[in-house]
Amino acid sequence: MKKKLLSLILLGATAVAAYAADASQTVDSRLEDAKTVIDQIMANTSNSIPENIAHKAQCVAVVPGMKKAAFIVGGSYGQGVVTCRTANGWSGPVFIRMAGGSWGLQIGGQSTDLVLLAMNQKGFQDLLHSKFKIGAGAAAAAGPVGRNAQASTDLSMHSEMLSYSRSKGAFAGIDLNGTTVTQNTDDTKALYGGSHAFTQILRGSVRPPAAAKGFLATVRQYFGGGTQTAGAQ
Known about the structure:
Shape: globular
Order of helices and strands: HHEEEEEHEEHEEEHHH
Oligomer: single chain
Structural class: alpha+beta
Radius of gyration: 19 Å
Low-confidence stretches: 2-24, 66-75, 103-108, 228-233
């Protein structure tokens, strides 16, 4: 009986260890995918996120495409990662889920990469909520592309969130209204090895884990360093 109980305990411990390893691999690969999306979108300076908008963004959310099972198009579902600007640099990342709305269907079911920028205090506060719906008090406008986009300055000043979407390498407009954004606490916990409130992480109170180094370096490269902004208050 004791041997059987010991076997069950060891089996359970092995299962827990395997689950933890799988979770770690999942969050690591998602960070790498997000890094790749930013690199690829910003590579073509004539058709990328304008520099003046990038350097004003308070938070950057990246949802990689279907190739890594981030989207289930029929259900309009995606998983992504968010970091926010603080006085000491970009915050440690947190994971989010996006579901609902019609944005997956707007592009005919093709793989899509999404970058969502919070441009001001309101946009930053929305990302701190455990759940919010785009279009219901949280508007997201399609952002202009190109280094010298004429409307970029006015748009960044008046929009709380700007969205950039890319399908098969080309920018494609999508409608995010009705899309619900929720916190992915399980994956965030797996990344940090323990529970931390999204508020603490995105305000820079929690040290970024080593696994996030590459992703955060890419964000710094294209969006600038940290300053005294909404994320650091």
